[in-house]
Automatic annotation (TrEMBL):
Its EC number is 1.1.1.30. GO terms for biological process: monocarboxylic acid metabolic process. Transmembrane segments: none annotated. It comes from Falsiruegeria mediterranea M17. It is an enzyme of class 1 (oxidoreductase). PANTHER family: 3-OXOACYL-(ACYL-CARRIER-PROTEIN) REDUCTASE (PTHR42879), 3-OXOACYL-[ACYL-CARRIER-PROTEIN] REDUCTASE FABG (PTHR42879:SF2). Keywords: Oxidoreductase. It holds the Pfam family adh_short_C2. This is D-beta-hydroxybutyrate dehydrogenase. Belongs to the short-chain dehydrogenases/reductases (SDR) family. GO terms for molecular function: 3-hydroxybutyrate dehydrogenase activity. NCBIfam families: PHB_DH, PRK12429.1.
């Protein structure tokens, strides 16, 4: 059980981050949710987790595209036993047409934020005598697809940084690993299904298996619960000697 520990999950007012927050809270850890907005519904998500699981949960606004706000998130939380670097965005374009502002935003949010949060969190983990850094990378941290230059570069960068942080903490009770999901069924992905069904004149199952999961041999999405469970595993005693590596949750994508 992670009772008494505190987990900070960046980019966690939707999708994988929110799913991870729920699973970690069910494991008994207090959770800090984050995104760049500061709406009532953001704070309501934390209140719902607290109510359902009995842990302490709060929401802290911080923009992960800004280094000082990444560090401020950790400082404001005050304690960080588990750091899950999850915030991320995507943009798809050929490299010679790739908008510079999109490139900069993807590198900042998907990669640089993990540098800043990890730098701020490690001293807290050292003081507490225990720590887990889990970076949500991607199958695109290990392989590439066309038109995703910034995303693939950032995710490969995160995998590289994961290895370095693991070496710098190797003799301490701290581990750092990356999870590499394939296609995950998040609300964002779910929302694309009706349009794709119409475009290809296919049923839901056919669109999922033939179009969306073309590269995922299992022909099934990974779920946010499975990703939360993988984070919880990396926080367990069984994972004490697992550091500096990647765990693929991709239905066989990277085995191809
Ligand atoms: P999502 O859009 O549902 O979640 C992204 C989260 O990041 C949101 O909470 C959003 O508010 C937050 N975010 C975006 N910009 C931010 C900023 N500037 N500051 C703070 N928070 C910010 O998407 P998701 O699918 O849940 O993605 C989560 C992570 O998982 C990303 O790093 C993504 O690259 C990775 N991933 C997703 C998939 C997939 O198939 N969905 C596959 C592999 C990896």
């Amino acid at each position: 059980s992670l009772k008494g520990k505190t987990a900070i999950i960046t980019g966690s007012n939707s999708g994988i981050g929110l799913g991870v927050a729920w699973e970690i809270a069910r494991s008994g850890a207090n959770v800090v949710l984050n995104s760049f907005t500061d709406r009532d519904e953001d704070h309501a998500l934390a209140a719902e987790i607290a109510k359902e699981t009995g842990v302490e949960a709060r929401y802290i606004k911080a923009d992960m595209s800004k280094g000082d706000e990444c560090r401020a998130l950790i400082e404001q939380a005050g304690v960080c036993d588990v750091l899950v670097n999850n915030a991320g965005i995507q943009h798809v374009a050929p490299i010679d047409e790739f908008p510079v502002d999109k490139w900069d935003a993807i590198i900042a949010i998907n990669m640089n934020s993990a540098f800043h949060t990890t730098a701020a969190a490690l001293p807290m983990m050292r003081k507490a005598g225990w720590g887990r850094v889990v970076n949500i990378a991607s199958a695109h941290g290990l392989t590439a697809s066309p038109f995703k230059a910034a995303y693939v570069a950032a995710k490969h960068g995160v995998v590289g940084m994961t290895k370095t942080v693991a070496l710098e903490t190797a003799e301490e009770p701290i581990t750092c690993n990356a999870i590499c999901p394939g296609y995950v069924l998040t609300p964002l992905v779910e929302a694309q299904i009706p349009d794709t069904m119409e475009k290809y004149n296919m049923g839901r199952e056919e669109v999922i298996k033939k179009v969306m999961l073309e590269r995922q041999p299992s022909r099934e999405f990974a779920t946010v619960e499975q990703l939360g469970g993988t984070v919880a595993f990396l926080c367990s005693d069984a994972a004490k000697q697992i550091t500096g590596t990647t765990i693929s949750v991709d239905g066989g994508w990277t085995a191809l």
